Amino acid sequence: MADIYKKIDNKDYKNRTLTEMTSTQSDKVQSIIQNFVNFFKNA
Amino acid sequence: MKGVLFSADFAIDENDDPRLLELNTDTVIYASFTSSINWSNLTDVINSNSDIKEFHLIYKKKIHDREVPLISESVANNCPNIETYGTTEIGYDDPYPTSPEDSGSKFILRLAFDESAVFDSTYCKNNVNTLKLMYDNNATSSITEFFHSSSNAEVNNLSGVVGSNNFLPHFIIKSTQPRTETHRFLSVTGSITDASSIANLATGSSNTENYVERFYYSSDQITNNKTRALRSYNILYGDDLDIIKLGSGSFDAIFNFQTSSNFRELPDSINTLPNKHYYEFTNKFPHSFAENTHGFLGEELIEKPDGTYISGSLIDSGSEVKSFFYSGSPDSDDMDEVDAWSQVGYTTPSGSYLRSASVVQATSASLDTNGINQIEVSGSPDFINVGIGTRLMVYSTGSNITKYVVAQDIDPDDHFIVNIVSSSLVPITNNYFAMPNDDLDLYAINVEPDDSYFLKVGNLPMNFQVNVHNFK
């Protein structure tokens, strides 16, 4: 019998709930993405 | 006008600030994200240009099954100027997707990776290039600290400052090779506290084909010993490379991290932590289309033509196994063809019959970080232990069809195992995603002519087997 370390019902991990980012986090994330794109355009 | 959908993954540092880890096309929109994706930001852009009359989607069925109907529905319902809607389906391994000719009257949205696009082939394909572009533009506080040394790039901004949690790693080593999810997690022993010494230990653990990344976590973001990460979905479009924000959110790791083994007490200066912790330390989602996800653990039993069984780890090329000619099923090892096949009901068609088949190929590969599915069927004291991409024949009560379904997608509330010999159904009582304690091998065989074989399930009195399909 397989020696299992951890397991979880298949449905539970497939339906992990999403937590909204804080507005501060969301703004920072979008700012980083925008910066990357700006650097990419200039690369 | 052309656009490409991509995801951006972030760790959260000790100050709750996001740190960019990687960008990806060919990205999956996780089920938990679908309700929060704001497709109206896309349709607003389409509607803002009255010249756009055609919308075209380029996608891969295996990856984008969830997104395609959502996007199609949103465009159909919200873009009155769109007169033509088209799609191009790309094979999973095709790096050069075909695309309709661009024009001012089209919006062509690509979900599939494109080797000929610099954004994809340079940055999404190689995380080091993404991090280095940010590093070269002094945006180091927006990215992970990392080290890489090769002819491609030389970067070292590892400070050697590490987290204080004794049950989480200090560093991750990631491959620079595309589609390689292999990670190694490193922990420096507690007696070494000097930052430069710690950084040197980390850099000394890498080679030219990987890079070292600092492992970040925020104490404020840990709930029930589960780490959290951030993901954002966006579209890059047009000549000016504008961004359409689709949605973002944070989500927990699959497993909570253990608190019984103190990693700072391990004996070596720097220690590699076992793969079994992968889904504690990352927020990755296991994908059934990934490499080395098809097959069975070595302890599984495969039926031979005489009705006896052989362990999966012992079977080799040239062996004979029991097989079944299932009338009407595709004679193919092309998984797209196998996945597209189904039949109404679960009664085995006339003209089907048991026979033997030859094992033309037997392989084994480390399970690595892929995990397995443990499928439990009614009446059996044991599980079927298979790779998450292994295709088993099941009957769906919801759709009244029989088909091969990957283990990861088998739903005990809907699916029954089909006993094709007796045309009967066996209830599935549980389906677990599991990480073994040890780094086990996953075994796979390719049999001909019938492309399928039987795995034994526990000690069921009905001598029942699961019909498993080849994978190539």
SSE order and pairing:
The complex is a heterodimer of chains A (43) and B (472).
Chain A: E1 4-9, H1 10-14, E2 18-19, H2 23-42
Chain B: E1 2-12, E2 18-24, H1 31-34, H2 40-47, E3 54-60, H3 61-64, H4 67-78, E4 84-90, E5 106-110, H5 118-124, H6 127-136, E6 146-149, E7 154-156, E8 171-175, E9 183-188, H7 195-203, E10 210-214, E11 228-237, E12 242-252, E13 270-273, H8 278-281, E14 296-297, E15 301-303, E16 309-311, E17 320-325, H9 335-340, E18 343-344, E19 353-366, E20 372-377, E21 383-387, E22 391-396, E23 401-406, E24 415-419, E25 424-436, E26 441-448, E27 452-456, E28 465-469
Parallel strand pairs in B: 1-5, 3-4, 3-5
Antiparallel strand pairs in B: 1-2, 1-11, 6-7, 6-10, 8-9, 8-10, 9-13, 11-12, 14-26, 15-16, 17-19, 18-23, 19-26, 20-21, 20-25, 22-23, 22-24, 24-25, 27-28
Detailed description of the structure:
The complex is a heterodimer of chains A (43) and B (472). By secondary structure, chain A is α+β, with helices and mostly antiparallel strands. Chain A has helices spanning 10-14, 23-42; strands spanning 4-9, 18-19. Chain B has helices spanning 31-34, 40-47, 61-64, 67-78, 118-124, 127-136, 195-203, 278-281, 335-340; strands at 2-12, 18-24, 54-60, 84-90, 106-110, 146-149, 154-156, 171-175, 183-188, 210-214, 228-237, 242-252, 270-273, 296-297, 301-303, 309-311, 320-325, 343-344, 353-366, 372-377, 383-387, 391-396, 401-406, 415-419, 424-436, 441-448, 452-456, 465-469. With 472 residues, chain B is mainly beta. In chain B, the strands form six sheets. In chain B, strands 1, 2, 3, 4, 5, 11 and 12 form a seven-stranded mixed beta sheet that branches. A seven-stranded antiparallel beta sheet of chain B has the order 18-23-22-24-25-20-21. A six-stranded antiparallel beta sheet of chain B has the order 7-6-10-8-9-13. In chain B, 14% of the residues lie in helices and 37% in strands. The two termini of chain B are 37 Å apart. At the A-B interface, strand 1, helix 1, strand 2 and helix 2 of A face strand 1, strand 2, helix 1, helix 6 and strand 11 of B. Strand 2 of chain A pairs antiparallel with strand 12 of chain B.
